[in-house]
Amino acid sequence: MDNEPKPFSPEVEEDIKESLKRCSPETIDAAIAYRRDGDTSQIPTVIMGILERVMEPEERSKLTEATDETRINEDLGIDSLTMVEVIMMVEESLDITVDNDELRGLSTVGDVKGFIATKTAG
Description:
Layout: H1 10-19, H2 25-37, H3 43-54, H4 80-94, H5 109-120
């Protein structure tokens, strides 16, 4: 499988909406803007929206105060299995590929944002 992004099309937009269907409209719009325009400034919105989606509803308020230093497991309560789900959703919505081995050093929100930004930069 090559790493060339699929050209943006109505089908790609529908795929994004489907893979992020339980995320906020802002998250979906950000993923579409990234895929359509290559706007990397949208990546943090996508990541935070996906994190919000996988968190328990009563825990989601923690994200409003989250910084790049916020720890994924200890502060947000996201375990490694859920983190794999997060990365799978990021892969689908941003059209990137992540190896499981690459996830080992990701312990904070900032780690995830930086890692995904690097992956999308090529």
